[in-house]
């Protein structure tokens, strides 16, 4: 079935490709705008929380009850979140309700304002997918639903992180491991670059840190990179495994979603306050910044960020996983740099990309993230580490509906 789709989309006429290119431009502009509003408000809310953590962190459980109430009463299918995006991609669902956009934005803002440890990429990808998929009703060509969905996913990721090439590869890779839907490349590429440019022009910040040193690829360094890739891969695998396990366990212990999110919200509030008053709340951008600026990174930062993010998301709070994965990887990289006698920022960058790759079961996207965020001078190192991180994990993923392509 997958092979048939690839052949169908590769036979699209030039006129259809021209129309798709125009739609990519429109979708990219719209998604970039929505990403900017979402991202800038999220940054402002984070600053408000960080300024007075005692005003907000104790009430995380109240925010959780509000989130559950909203999804229970008006959320409908949008409560499935990324799961719904995957189901539409596999043609198990036909539509993504437009209400998903305000629902996921508001509930993610609540999670971050009150200190939950979560990301934002899941929101951006859902926003992009919803906007783009709405347009497919106006067209009639093979595999139109999948093409528009992938276009929106790429635009959503690119608008938020401003890594357009990596965003295209992420959307291509993430639905089905081992299958790239290359027929969607034209609208995906245009939408991705347009969304990235739009959000940048409108003032949404991008994290980037050009590495000062280029590490020579000697046999010793190659072995070090191999080992680092395996370690980072295990960290990403651990995150994905614990997230799935914790969701299942918490659902069994607290089948009532209100009780689950309230009790776990109380526990999280206590932990966040005791652990440096919110150091592990929110996206984890504080840990990322410290990793690359010489700030204080504790040996246990990566593990506490991992565990608290898992508990937050498993409890039912909203957000994503990718930015916390970046934080986990970069802070773990700082710890490992001294053991391998390699530059700290260099190993932090390797952890940044490869923990994400392992947890999402993506291979090409992390390599391009390395180039777009840290510069291309160490591209061979990104390639080697991402390769060995990727082979560690093919079973567990933060996206539970992700499929593996089986070829005869």
TrEMBL record:
Alphabetical UniProt keywords: Membrane, Transmembrane, Transmembrane helix
Annotated organism of origin: Streptococcus macacae NCTC 11558
GO cellular component terms attached to this protein's record: membrane
Membrane topology: Multi-pass membrane protein
Protein name: Chloride transporter, ClC family
A Pfam family that the UniProt record links to this protein: Voltage_CLC
Cellular compartment(s): Membrane
Protein origin, superkingdom: Bacteria
Organism classification: Bacteria, Bacillati, Bacillota, Bacilli, Lactobacillales
GO function terms (MF aspect): chloride transmembrane transporter activity
Cross-referenced InterPro entries: Cl-channel_core, ClC, ClC-type_chloride_channel
């Amino acid at each position: 079935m997958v092979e048939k789709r690839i052949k169908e989309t590769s036979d699209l006429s030039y006129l259809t490709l021209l129309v798709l290119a125009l739609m990519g431009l429109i979708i990219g502009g719209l998604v970039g705008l929505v990403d900017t509003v979402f991202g800038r408000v999220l940054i402002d809310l984070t600053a408000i929380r960080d300024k007075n953590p005692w005003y907000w962190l104790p009430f995380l459980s109240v925010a959780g009850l509000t989130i559950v109430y909203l999804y229970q009463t008006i959320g409908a299918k949008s409560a499935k979140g990324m799961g719904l995006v995957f189901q539409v991609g596999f043609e198990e669902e036909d539509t993504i309700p437009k209400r998903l956009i305000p629902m996921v934005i508001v509930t993610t803002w609540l999670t971050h304002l009150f200190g939950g440890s979560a990301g934002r990429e899941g929101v951006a990808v859902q926003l992009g997918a919803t906007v783009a998929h709405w347009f497919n009703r106006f067209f009639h060509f093979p595999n139109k639903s999948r093409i528009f969905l992938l276009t929106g996913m790429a635009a959503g990721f690119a608008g938020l992180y401003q890594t357009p090439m990596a965003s295209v590869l992420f959307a291509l890779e993430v639905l089905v491991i081992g299958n790239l839907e290359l027929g969607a490349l034209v609208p995906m590429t245009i939408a991705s670059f347009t969304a990235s440019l739009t959000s940048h022009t409108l003032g949404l910040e991008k994290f980037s840190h050009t590495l000062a040193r280029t590490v020579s690829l000697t046999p010793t360094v190659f072995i070090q990179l191999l080992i680092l890739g395996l370690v980072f891969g295990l960290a990403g695998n651990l995150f994905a495994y614990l997230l799935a396990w914790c969701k299942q366990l918490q659902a069994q212990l607290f089948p009532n979603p209100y009780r689950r999110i309230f009790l776990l919200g109380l526990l999280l509030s206590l932990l966040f306050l005791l652990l440096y008053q919110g150091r592990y709340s929110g996206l984890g951008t504080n840990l990322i910044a410290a990793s690359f600026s010489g700030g204080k990174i504790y040996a246990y930062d990566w593990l506490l960020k991992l565990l608290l993010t898992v508990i937050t998301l498993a409890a039912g709070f909203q957000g994503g996983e990718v930015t916390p994965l970046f934080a986990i990887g970069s802070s773990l990289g700082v710890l490992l740099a001294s053991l391998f006698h390699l530059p700290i920022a260099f190993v932090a960058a390797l952890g940044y990309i490869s923990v994400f790759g392992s947890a999402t079961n993506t291979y090409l996207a992390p390599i391009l993230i390395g180039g777009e965020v840290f510069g291309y001078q160490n591209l061979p190192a990104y390639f080697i580490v991402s390769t060995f991180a990727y082979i560690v994990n093919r079973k567990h993923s933060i996206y539970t509906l992700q499929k593996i392509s089986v070829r005869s």
